[in-house]
Amino acid sequence: MKSLENIPVLVTGATGFVGSRLSEQLSVKEKASVTGIGRNLDRVSYLKNHGVNLQSADLMNTDVLRELVDGKEIVFHTAAALGADPETAQKVNVEATETLVKLAGEAGVSRFVHISTVGVYDMKNLDEVVESAPLALNHSSTYPRTKAEAEKRAIEMASTYDMELSIVRPSMIYGPGHGIWSEGMFKNILEGKPVMLGDGSAHFNPVYIDDVVDAIIRCSKHPKAAGEAFNVSAEITTWREFMSHYGDLCGKEPKGVTILIARLMAFANKIPGITTPIDRGFIEMATSRKKFPIQKAADLIDWEPKVSLEEGLKRTTEWLDKEVYKKS
Question: What's the rounded Cα separation, in Å, for the pair 7 and 31?
């Protein structure tokens, strides 16, 4: 694998959970010349102390993006709209991604690493979901549909400019920090909100933040990553077992919603003016027993998760205890 030392790179979504950790690791461990963009820069001001050049930027501003990709060798695209309305998600997840790949191609960027999700797959009738599974381009839920469409357009645009594209598809990313599967779920438990469906016995596919970042960086360096997509996951547990660690921290039992009520809530989203936090995509994820094999990543880029679930949860709950629970 090539060195990233002094290589100019751009990280979108640098204020987010994955983007901030990626920016830090690229600068500190890889010695890359990192420009990180986002909107709420105060949230990650500490990155400046790690040598990251932070710049405020709107993904919908083509002129600004054109300036930012100029002179960069690698672009890491972590920014996405999660939980947004369909129109916003289409603009951010699909149109902005396509524009960014186009601008990167025009600027002569050598490799574009796109961060996606295992949710992009059409998983009907599949127990094991490998990277060759079809994309859920017609999914009824906004996030998986727009992320799938973003991949399709990114692949087409990268091909137009003969630019190397790698796609990383993580499962549920957790770890210290402001992630939905760590801080987000812990706060839900604290507030007595449900965090699982049924009895919580369905598969939960967690993967630790640093292992995800390692896979992303490998995709930027390894020659065999060009033109490929990779599942990035780790040990399988259950929703109840995973959430119980957060419940133990704050002395509260994680709550669930019956599947019937969840389906009614998902249906209610079709009614104008009504919005619920549960849609078909969440129901599929929270009731499935699917597996996302990582053999391809192991074979092509020599990646495998290094942080065990036990160790990852220990680090995560220690951070939550200090940064969230004791401050609540």
Answer: 8
CATH architecture of 8-179+205-236+291-306: 3-Layer(aba) Sandwich (3.40)
Flag whether the pTM goes above 0.85.
yes
| Per-residue pLDDT reduced to its tens digit, 182-229 | 999 999 999 999 999 989 999 999 999 999 999 999 999 999 999 999
**CA proximity to 239, closest of 310, 292, 181:** 181
**pLDDT, tens digit, for every residue of 80-132?**
998 778 899 999 999 999 999 999 999 999 999 999 999 999 998 899 999 99
Cα separation, 297 vs 304, whole angstroms? 7
Of residues 114, 324, 325, 309, the one with CA closest to residue 225 = 114
CA distance 98 to 149: 10
Gap between the Cα atoms of 102 and 77, Å rounded:
13
